[in-house]
Predict the 3D structure of the following.
Amino acid sequence: MTERQQRIEAGRDAPWVGFRTLLYKEVLRFWKVAFQTVMAPVLNAVLFLLIFSHVLDRHVTVYGDIAYTTFLVPGLVMMSLLQNAFANSSSSLIQSKITGNIIFVLLPPLSYREFYAAYVIASILRGLFVGLGVLLISVPFVEFHMAHPLWVLTFAVLGGAILSSLGVIAGIWADKFDQLAAFQNFLIMPLTMLSGVFYSIHSLPPLWQDVSHANPFFFMIDGFRYGFFGQSDVSPWLSLGVVSGCFVLLATLTLAMLARGYKLRA
């Protein structure tokens, strides 16, 4: 048996070994510096919570009887989850491209689907760790229960998958950190901050309510918040449909880019 045949047979005996190895590498990459990748985003969210709750909690109620701080927490959890899911996949790819070690990911017999799945799952995990950290730190400040835990988990995973896919797209497209920063500062950050994290869109004029409905991040936040309170600005089924459609679209686009080797293979 030739060496090539031996490698093929070994691959048959150990399916998904490339995917598992890449996933382990990506999880280990952010976990080894968890103080920066997990704890720092949690601290940022808690600062938002302290500042806004101190200023507005006694003056604002949402959905009739929900205190503002209680309303704010799910939005901060989801915002932190989304931003860190994007940051994980995008930063990993751009660093690998700039340092040149992306070649060690591309050389093994790893399919583009396995490549995509490893980066996305690792990024979702980082987002979930950050979101859970924000939620746990918020417990002393608010009293709430999850009305629909399954909805919370569904929107958390789908939202993380969408932003992870966007991160892969950004990491592939960008050739330097400046381009990646522009992608994050001029697209991800505005869409996140204007998605209803800090307010209910029913408090906006009709024109800006319509504008908010054009922002897919709004549906991620609103559907996630529904899982906590059983109340939302729009139907959770509408939010689920929009979010699921966005994920399918972005996953298809990302897989097409990876299949072509766009900006990854010479």
Remarks:
- The mean pLDDT is 87.
- Residues 140 and 211 are 35 Å apart (CA to CA).
- The chain has one domain: 34-260.
- The chain is about 75% helix and 0% strand.
